[in-house]
Amino acid sequence: MAVTGPHPANVPTLPAHTDPDTDRVMDSGLLHELSYAFGGPFHFLLPHRFDTNLTAFRAVLDDAGVTGQVYYAKKANKAAVWMERCAAHHAGVDTASAPELRAALGHGVRGADIVVTGPAKSTELLRLAAHQGCLVAVDSLDELDLLVTLALTGTARPARLLLRRLPPAQPHSRFGLTAAEVATALDRCVRAGDAVRMEGFSFHLSGYATRPRADLAGELVAHCLRARELGLRADRISIGGGFAVDYSSAGHWHTFLDGQRPEHYHAHKTFEPDGFYPYHSPVAGADALRAILDTVPEGARTSLAGLLKETGTMLMTEPGRALLDGAGASVFCVQGVKERDGYRILTVDGTSLSLSEQWFNSEYLPDPYLVTAAGRARGGAEAHPACVGGASCLEPDLLTWRKVPFPARPRIGDLLVYPNTAGYQMDSNESSFHDLPLPPKVVVDRLGDRPRWRLDRHPAC
Length: 461
Fold this sequence. Notes:
Blueprint: H1 20-27, H2 30-38, E1 42-45, H3 47-64, E2 68-73, H4 80-88, E3 92-95, H5 98-106, E4 114-116, H6 123-132, E5 135-138, H7 141-154, E6 159-164, H8 179-192, E7 196-202, H9 211-229, E8 236-238, H10 250-259, H11 285-294, H12 304-311, E9 314-317, E10 328-340, E11 343-348, E12 369-372, E13 375-376, E14 384-389, E15 398-406, E16 415-418, E17 441-446, E18 452-455
Parallel strand pairs: 1-17, 2-3, 2-9, 3-4, 4-5, 5-6, 6-7, 7-8, 8-9, 11-14
Antiparallel strand pairs: 1-10, 10-11, 10-16, 12-13, 12-16, 14-15, 17-18
Helix pairs in contact: 3-11, 6-7, 7-8, 9-12
């Protein structure tokens, strides 16, 4: 039975921003060769885009005249190539486990350029961090006591630390120290003497708003000044991550939100619109950092940039997704097509566990590209709506519940390329369910008619 979709204008769509680098890979013929070689889904990575994003963040700091350091949040993507890029460009890395810390060290990142975050850190992680001279963001008084003990008994160097502040605007967060705990922690740092080097304060805020970050950063600068009066170094603050990525245009995003309805999803699946990631952000990436630095924190007389310069305070940032903007995509092969009332159900050679937005009971919304053996499918007079299911026996295993209006009829052997998935989508939730191997990651080192590629060197690949 032929399935004819409605006119494209009547079907919700969310095209990603045009990306020439991803287009060149899709048009090169490489993807079908790799799909055949691997016999399953895979991800491709574009390391030069990481370099570009890192340069943009550093340029904002330079333009503002602010001393700072950019740390890549490793949890955003496990690939080894990002550690290689950090080592090559003397960038920092934000880690939260002993394996992450070892991976960063093993790929050439200096301990001095690594910050260790996360709650209730293990003795193993704290000992390794102290031995390697890493900067530890202390999350609790117990953790501070353990770090001091390790420094007193096991290392020849002081333990470097920040005190992580509980955001007053997010009092129910399980992370960070209250104002009273900060006061107690400062007293313990003073009493620890040369065993520790208390270098400042940190925070991490949920959401992507810039003003709350500037306001809390201003508060941390004030904390640094008080700590210095106690004889502590306190010369830096970390504002964490939360720099949005702009996946699609404002027009496409708002049109999508206004037009999407349950009938546009398989099985009339419903999502709360405010549960979606903001796939359009008017201020994103390095521009968000610029906006934070330009903001006058509450109670201050000058911008955050001015406050940092006046007080000789260094700014640390820990972007993950924002450093990976445009740095990779995920590729699945269609291995089954089923006709349904007015649309198709595609089954691909992987599972929804490789698109981690499902982790948040949400949907990765940018439209996947349809790439046939002849190349990318182009727009025609009709749309061909289809949802995308995974190759597992689980009913809710759908990569895309939405009936995507493909520009051509998808067929077995065609590829679906999900764009811009390097930030958190590729491997945060991947699992070898059904004994299926984890999708390998392919590093594309050179674009053009004949791309040069290699496998990423992460052990899991």
